[in-house]
Amino acid sequence: MTDSLPPSPISCDLDLARDGAQHGFLRLPWSRDDSAWGAVMIPISVIRNGAGPTALLTAGNHGDEYEGLIALHDLAATLDPAQITGRIIILPAMNAPAFRAGTRTSPIDGGNLNRLFPGRPDGTPTQKIADYVTRHLLPLADCVLDFHSGGRTLDFLPLAACHILPDKALEARCREAVAAFGAPYALQMIEMDAVGMFDTTAEAMGKTFVTTELGGAGTATPRSIAIAKRGLRGFLAQAGILAGDEGATTQAAWPETIWLDMPDGDCFLVSEEEGLIEPLVTLGDPVMRGDVVARIYPFGRSGRMPLSCHARRDGIVMARHVPGLVKPGDCIAVFAVPVS
Ligand SMILES: [Zn+2]
Q1: Separation of CA 150 and ligand 1 centre (Å)
Q2: Averaged confidence pLDDT in the chain
Q3: Which ranges carry the Succinylglutamate desuccinylase/Aspartoacylase catalytic domain (predicted)?
Q4: How many domains does the chain contain in total?
Q5: Cα–Cα dist 317/334, whole Å
């Protein structure tokens, strides 16, 4: 689909077709004040054992979402090629500059990698990363797992997710892969802002695609990391890449995944004011339409009543705003509906 584009400036120092475990870098040339012929070094690992399916595992698409980063670094450091059939390609910090800076977007060019797919080989550094993944890694993959969490400004119920897709056979495969991930919650969603997402590009190429939101708040917890690690193994077992025993152990971890639905835009509660936020509900709490779920105290002086923020639909709290201050347009909370 992108045959007319020039070659990518990014090089990979691994032979992705070779058996065994290899660890190296994607090298993105980046000439700058402090490094004249410098490069952005993006870690990559490939673990292969003979013919079989290929999984592309990515985290650090946003640089401040840590569960997947930790789970993929752990997998790359510990997985024995003899445990698998086929190939696993691991990019634990896909937007490496953002990861190093501890930010959602790249400090080099302000790029939000998950809004710049399929990318450009002659664009900004972040567009070049997207282009390399689109043209050089996605074509090798049968299935893709892209880890996300809430980052520094949101915290989520731990969930794996797939999308409602026009290709119903692909949609069913994605849903099975989400079930195999086995998180406490699962979500099948319609994206409000799908243009430029890694998900959209991978799904358009017919790849089984799973994404996650596994916590957030700019950190990770032992529980959220355990969910990421076990989910990863369940995903690889279901793909036929990891041996069956590993998968069976994983499946027992969270036997009762609760599926959620986001029926419409009323799931999102957005602040219209700035100030100091007082949350009145927390993750997983049930809410009814009209409930006061947060109050916002205006800046400036004491003695004023706070503004009440009301839920716009029935549901449970799936995500919540993290910082203690809000601005107009900030997402205060996201509500979802459990599916029986
Ligand atoms: Zn993210």
Answers
A1: 6
A2: 94
A3: 51-237
A4: 2
A5: 6
